[in-house]
Amino acid sequence: LERGRPQLTARSRHDRVFVNARGGPLSRMGFWKILRGHARAAGIDERVHPHALRHSFATHLLQGGADLRVVQELLGHASVTTTAIYTHVDRAYLREVHRTFHPRR
Length: 105
Description:
Layout: H1 4-9, H2 28-41, H3 51-63, H4 68-75, H5 80-86, H6 91-101
Helix pairs in contact: 4-5
């Protein structure tokens, strides 16, 4: 990425995060194809979709200690209620938070 991306995007007039092999904007279907290939290579059998990346981004930020309002801003949501939909908390994390903050530790 450090070497290849500058070469790919040097002549482009856009600021896309994801680019194709020619440096142009990566199409929606192109992104799906790449994501599906990586999921398959990782042994993930369930259907993986690009929007799952937003959900995992929000969840990992919160589990890392980020404030919900900060995550809201990063995702560009008008309402914190929408942001809460994006966050998924697993049981292990719930137990850890309970052990850490409950007064009867």
